[in-house]
Fold this sequence. Notes:
By secondary structure, this protein is an all-alpha fold.
Amino acid sequence: MGRIRAVGEPETSEAGGDGQGVSSSSGPDVESGVAAYEEVHERQQRLKKAVKDAAAFGPSAKKPAQPGSVLYQVFEVQALLGAVAGGLAAFNLIWPSDEPSVARLLGMWSIWMWTIPSLRARQCPQEEKEALNYAFLLVPITNILIPFAVKSFSAIYVADVAITLALYKWKVWK
Length: 174
């Protein structure tokens, strides 16, 4: 009978009685394996280059969006739209419902999800960055604790805005 062969092992025909077998294919399988390996390696190199190129365009801790750049303005508009849309959703003006809804929940969290991260992605004075860092830590705590006292999406949204503005007043608008 034939023996079980490993994946990629060439097929053999048991011509002699010694069980060693004679390889029926040697060159094409090896060449196709090498070609496949080279293709995978080339794809990995292209992917690494694409990731490196993409990182050059986005903000990072070392290279945030510079004032006056288009990206800086995009982050400011995104922060404003996030706050406005979140307020409209939290106050039940977008997709109104009598019951709690995903839209109202997202509206309640919009300051933390959109506004604060958008403002933090810009290059700004250290005081503003510190205020936004504090806000990023305090807003989720507020969003978790306030519902024990008040079950209102709009109240939580107003508290988030108040916390963010109070931190700006304390750190930035001295």
